[in-house]
């Protein structure tokens, strides 16, 4: 037992965790058995919308709240599973009446309003493919994605339509309809009012036979490392959502669950819509953007029990430096989770201290469709580790050989590429229109993630960095995450982004971009102090040799530090695709 590890005392938990004996559960797991957790369609097959909404609406949960919507300006609306069934049936009928066929793509571009969530379910019911866009994209990224995704229908709001769609409309000849979620009048034969169509539609819709392998969602990646890729998922991915909801989110039917991710990103659909609902759990949706006080108040007022968020949000809360448990009643909260980029050990420990709960890091990608590696509520946390693979998931560390073959690393603590054995249901089925890139992700039985990691003696995985971000300095390989996490241990540091800057003598020089906590000012003295701090903790070879202060680091709109941009700017190179760069 390491003194930094966070041990769990299950006897003190108010709710008995779904997973208690990790090893046993892992050994005995069988994907075949997951099938019995689903009702399936009467006409055969499996459809996510049925499992998420209709089956509950047809059961004792019909009057239970499925969705609690918190409007930006303090409004609050609730929808039962029964109501969601009817409303989404209406929308499925709308799509059917508009002549949309199975497999055709429906894009969404909207802030987090209830109509968006209703439509998502309706789209899946009518066997259309959901393609969520992030509402803060500008016209060009929207155009690119809609063209690449073969958009047939777009759902959006009047304001977004006027500002972002009109300028690109001529370049989308294949787009048949635009439905305005908040407009009572049709604008033209092509631009229609959602509410008018909904009023005319029947609230009964029988979902047609849907195959496990039918396409359900097309998601674009975050664009952290380059041009976003269109990732294709199928209805069967819901198996992974179900097991991760059980084991990782530890969902119990009485939970009140909040996922702060926007459905424009994969976490916001897989875990902000599908997973809570397939477990029959009440799902909180907040229309507002990040705001520390508002978020704490939401956790308190809605009595949230399970909260899924991201490192960037945690770091922002850390910056505020308050005593949340003294100011708010967070006593209902029993589990906090984070995903999206590495969670610094400092953040895990901050949670333990300030929120009275550690933060459970977990790892996955748009491509894996669901959580693959996680810290489980009942298991010891080793801060800085992403945890262990879910039952049903085999993760490994592999090395690529020169002849194109691979070798699985068997010794502990040796770095290599993080790979997942193929065969789990939510693995993506294609990069849309890019077979070549897709094929390159697979070697033998392994899907190669593009991230570097190592596995310790006990099977815990530790993130090192993205393969593209690894720094080669004086013959050493340095992962940016380790350096960033160490810098964050210094009281002045709020955030750090580390890159390798080309250097004639040593190959690459470790350079850190640092933003400071309130109350600290950039100075030469502080730079020297941070360099010294790094050296003491990391050794001279790994510690940053250069520090640059920046008020805010460049991030994707989903909150990930864009190291490739820090590097391009440092080297005066073109910035590449910046469609997902935060304003
Ligand atoms: P792109 O593929 O377009 O560059 P992206 O990889 O950021 O963008 P996502 O699929 O949203 O797009 O993110 C998945 C990636 O996020 C992972 O491959 C990993 O690099 C990072 N990530 C996610 N969770 C974690 C985690 N818990 N620890 C470390 N890294 C994480
Ligand atoms: Mg990626």
TrEMBL record:
> AMP-dependent synthetase/ligase domain location, by residue?
57-432
Q: Which Gene3D superfamilies match?
A: 3.30.300.30, N-terminal domain of ligase-like
Enzyme superclass (EC): ligase
* InterPro entries reported for this sequence: AMP-bd_C (IPR025110), AMP-bd_C_sf (IPR045851), AMP-binding_CS (IPR020845), AMP-dep_synth/lig_dom (IPR000873), ANL_N_sf (IPR042099), Mitochondrial_ACSM (IPR051087)
Q: What's a GO biological-process term for it?
A: acyl-CoA metabolic process
EC number(s) in its UniProt entry? 6.2.1.1
* GO-annotated molecular function: acetate-CoA ligase activity; ATP binding; fatty acid ligase activity; fatty-acyl-CoA synthase activity
- Keywords annotated in UniProt: ATP-binding, Ligase, Nucleotide-binding
Per the database record, which ranges form the AMP-binding enzyme C-terminal domain? Answer: 482-560
**Family from the record:** Belongs to the ATP-dependent AMP-binding enzyme family.
Instruction: Kindly provide the name given to this protein in its UniProt entry.
Output: Acetate--CoA ligase
Species assigned in the record: Candidatus Sulfurimonas marisnigri
């Amino acid at each position: 037992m390491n003194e930094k590890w966070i041990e769990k005392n299950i006897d003190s938990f108010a709710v008995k965790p779904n997973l208690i004996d990790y090893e046993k559960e892992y050994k005995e797991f069988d994907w075949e058995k997951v099938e019995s957790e689903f009702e399936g369609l009467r006409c055969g097959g499996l459809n996510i919308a049925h499992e998420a909404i209709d089956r509950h609406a047809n059961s004792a949960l019909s009057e239970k709240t499925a969705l609690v919507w918190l409007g930006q300006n303090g409004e609050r609306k609730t929808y039962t599973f029964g109501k969601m069934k009817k409303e989404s049936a209406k929308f499925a009928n709308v799509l059917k009446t508009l002549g949309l066929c199975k497999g055709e793509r429906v894009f969404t571009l909207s802030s987090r309003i209830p109509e968006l969530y209703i439509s998502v379910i309706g789209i899946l019911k009518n066997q259309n493919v959901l393609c969520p866009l992030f509402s803060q994209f500008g016209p060009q990224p929207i155009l690119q994605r809609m063209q690449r995704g073969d958009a047939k229908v777009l759902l959006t709001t009047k304001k977004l339509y006027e500002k972002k769609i009109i300028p690109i409309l001529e370049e989308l000849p294949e787009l048949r309809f635009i439905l305005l979620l908040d407009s009572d009048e049709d604008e033209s034969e092509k631009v229609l009012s959602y509410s008018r169509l909904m009023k005319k539609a029947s609230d009964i819709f029988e979902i047609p036979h849907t195959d496990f392998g039918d396409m359900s969602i097309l998601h674009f990646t975050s664009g952290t490392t380059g041009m976003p890729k269109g990732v294709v998922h199928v209805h069967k991915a819901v198996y992974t959502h179900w097991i991760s909801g059980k084991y990782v989110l530890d969902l119990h039917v009485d939970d009140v669950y909040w996922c702060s991710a926007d459905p424009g990103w994969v976490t916001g659909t897989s875990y902000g819509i599908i997973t809570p609902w397939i477990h029959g759990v009440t799902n909180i949706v907040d229309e507002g953007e990040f705001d520390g006080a508002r978020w704490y108040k939401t956790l308190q007022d809605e009595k949230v029990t399970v909260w899924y968020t991201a490192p960037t949000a945690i770091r922002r809360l850390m910056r505020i430096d308050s005593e949340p448990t003294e100011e708010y009643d967070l006593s209902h909260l029993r589990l906090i989770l984070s995903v999206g980029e590495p969670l610094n050990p400092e953040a895990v420990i901050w949670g333990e201290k300030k929120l009275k709960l550690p933060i459970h890091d977990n790892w996955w990608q748009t491509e894996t469709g669901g959580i693959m590696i996680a810290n489980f509520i009942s298991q010891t946390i080793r801060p800085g580790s992403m945890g262990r693979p879910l039952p049903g998931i085999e993760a490994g560390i592999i090395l690529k050989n020169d002849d194109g073959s691979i070798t699985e690393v068997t010794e502990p603590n040796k770095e290599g590429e993080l790979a997942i054995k193929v065969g789990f249901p939510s693995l993506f089925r294609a990069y849309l229109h890019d077979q070549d890139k897709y094929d390159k992700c697979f070697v033998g039985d392994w899907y190669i993630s593009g991230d570097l990691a190592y596995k310790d003696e006990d099977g815990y995985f530790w993130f090192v960095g993205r393969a593209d971000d690894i720094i080669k300095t004086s013959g050493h390989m340095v992962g940016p995450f380790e350096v960033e996490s160490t810098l964050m241990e210094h009281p002045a540091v709020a955030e750090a982004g580390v890159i390798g800057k080309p250097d004639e003598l040593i190959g690459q020089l470790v350079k850190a971009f640092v933003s400071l906590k309130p109350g600290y000012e950039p100075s030469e003295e502080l730079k020297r102090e941070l360099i010294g701090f790094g050296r003491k903790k990391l050794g001279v070879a790994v510690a940053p040799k250069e520090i640059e202060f920046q008020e805010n680091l460049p991030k994707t709109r989903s909150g990930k530090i864009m190291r490739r941009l820090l590097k391009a700017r440092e080297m005066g190179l073109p910035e590449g695709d910046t469609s997902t760069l935060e304003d």
